[in-house]
Amino acid sequence: MIRKSIFVTALILSGCTPKPTPPENFKSLNNQQLCQALGYNSDKAVATLSILNEISSRGESIDMDQCHALEMATREHPVDFLKTEPWDDFSRQVNKRIMEDIQKMHREGRL
User: Fold this and answer.
1) Residue 7 class from Cβ within 10 Å (0-12 exposed, 13-18 middle, 19+ buried)?
2) Are 87 and 72 in a shared domain?
3) Domain residues for 73?
4) What is the C-alpha to C-alpha distance for residues 48 and 40, in angstroms, rounded to an integer?
5) Do you know which PROSITE patterns this protein is assigned to (predicted)?
6) Would you tell me which of 43, 46, 74, 97 could form a disulfide with 39, CB atoms 3.0–4.6 Å apart?
7) pLDDT tens per residue across span 91-100
Protein backbone atom coordinates (compact mmCIF):
# COMPACT_ATOMS: atom_id res chain seq x y z
CA MET A 1 0.00 0.00 0.00
CA ILE A 2 2.84 2.36 0.88
CA ARG A 3 4.55 1.63 -2.44
CA LYS A 4 1.42 2.46 -4.37
CA SER A 5 0.91 5.71 -2.49
CA ILE A 6 4.54 6.75 -3.01
CA PHE A 7 4.26 5.88 -6.70
CA VAL A 8 1.03 7.83 -7.15
CA THR A 9 2.34 10.79 -5.14
CA ALA A 10 5.57 10.93 -7.10
CA LEU A 11 3.72 10.62 -10.38
CA ILE A 12 1.33 13.44 -9.51
CA LEU A 13 4.08 15.71 -8.26
CA SER A 14 6.45 15.11 -11.14
CA GLY A 15 6.61 17.30 -14.22
CA CYS A 16 7.65 16.38 -17.73
CA THR A 17 10.90 17.08 -19.51
CA PRO A 18 11.90 16.49 -23.13
CA LYS A 19 15.37 15.15 -22.18
CA PRO A 20 15.03 12.17 -19.82
CA THR A 21 17.81 11.12 -17.49
CA PRO A 22 19.31 7.86 -18.79
CA PRO A 23 17.78 4.96 -16.82
CA GLU A 24 21.05 3.02 -16.81
CA ASN A 25 22.48 5.60 -14.41
CA PHE A 26 19.88 4.68 -11.79
CA LYS A 27 20.84 0.99 -11.78
CA SER A 28 24.31 1.82 -10.47
CA LEU A 29 23.01 3.78 -7.45
CA ASN A 30 22.70 2.25 -4.00
CA ASN A 31 19.32 2.35 -2.25
CA GLN A 32 19.97 5.63 -0.43
CA GLN A 33 21.26 7.38 -3.55
CA LEU A 34 18.29 6.07 -5.53
CA CYS A 35 15.80 7.55 -3.05
CA GLN A 36 17.69 10.84 -3.06
CA ALA A 37 17.63 10.84 -6.87
CA LEU A 38 13.85 10.55 -6.63
CA GLY A 39 13.85 13.84 -4.71
CA TYR A 40 16.31 15.56 -7.04
CA ASN A 41 14.31 14.51 -10.12
CA SER A 42 10.87 15.18 -8.67
CA ASP A 43 10.08 17.65 -11.45
CA LYS A 44 11.00 15.24 -14.28
CA ALA A 45 8.30 12.66 -15.02
CA VAL A 46 10.40 10.33 -17.19
CA ALA A 47 13.26 10.23 -14.69
CA THR A 48 10.80 9.76 -11.82
CA LEU A 49 9.19 6.79 -13.55
CA SER A 50 12.60 5.25 -14.29
CA ILE A 51 13.61 5.63 -10.65
CA LEU A 52 10.32 4.17 -9.43
CA ASN A 53 10.77 1.20 -11.78
CA GLU A 54 14.25 0.63 -10.38
CA ILE A 55 12.92 0.89 -6.80
CA SER A 56 10.21 -1.65 -7.63
CA SER A 57 12.73 -4.01 -9.20
CA ARG A 58 14.75 -4.04 -5.99
CA GLY A 59 11.74 -5.32 -4.07
CA GLU A 60 11.91 -5.59 -0.31
CA SER A 61 15.56 -4.47 -0.07
CA ILE A 62 14.42 -0.83 0.11
CA ASP A 63 12.74 0.53 3.24
CA MET A 64 9.94 2.56 1.66
CA ASP A 65 9.39 4.79 4.70
CA GLN A 66 13.06 5.72 4.79
CA CYS A 67 13.07 6.16 1.01
CA HIS A 68 10.13 8.54 1.18
CA ALA A 69 11.86 10.55 3.94
CA LEU A 70 15.06 10.79 1.86
CA GLU A 71 13.08 11.82 -1.20
CA MET A 72 11.29 14.61 0.66
CA ALA A 73 14.51 15.81 2.33
CA THR A 74 16.37 16.13 -0.97
CA ARG A 75 13.58 17.57 -3.05
CA GLU A 76 15.08 20.65 -4.72
CA HIS A 77 12.12 22.10 -6.54
CA PRO A 78 8.91 23.12 -4.80
CA VAL A 79 5.85 21.87 -6.60
CA ASP A 80 3.89 24.60 -8.37
CA PHE A 81 0.61 23.18 -9.62
CA LEU A 82 -0.19 26.45 -11.39
CA LYS A 83 2.87 26.14 -13.64
CA THR A 84 1.70 24.42 -16.82
CA GLU A 85 4.66 24.81 -19.18
CA PRO A 86 6.08 21.28 -18.69
CA TRP A 87 2.66 19.76 -19.26
CA ASP A 88 2.06 21.96 -22.32
CA ASP A 89 5.38 20.86 -23.81
CA PHE A 90 4.59 17.22 -23.10
CA SER A 91 1.14 17.64 -24.65
CA ARG A 92 2.70 19.10 -27.81
CA GLN A 93 5.10 16.17 -28.02
CA VAL A 94 2.28 13.65 -27.62
CA ASN A 95 0.14 15.41 -30.23
CA LYS A 96 3.06 15.49 -32.68
CA ARG A 97 3.68 11.78 -32.16
CA ILE A 98 0.00 10.97 -32.66
CA MET A 99 -0.07 12.94 -35.92
CA GLU A 100 3.08 11.16 -37.14
CA ASP A 101 1.53 7.79 -36.31
CA ILE A 102 -1.71 8.68 -38.11
CA GLN A 103 0.20 9.83 -41.20
CA LYS A 104 2.29 6.64 -41.17
CA MET A 105 -0.82 4.46 -40.87
CA HIS A 106 -2.44 6.42 -43.71
CA ARG A 107 0.62 5.88 -45.95
CA GLU A 108 0.56 2.16 -45.13
CA GLY A 109 -3.14 1.97 -46.02
CA ARG A 110 -4.27 0.99 -42.54
CA LEU A 111 -6.61 4.00 -42.31
Assistant:
1) middle
2) no
3) 2-78
4) 9
5) PROKAR_LIPOPROTEIN (PS51257)
6) 74
7) 778 888 899 9
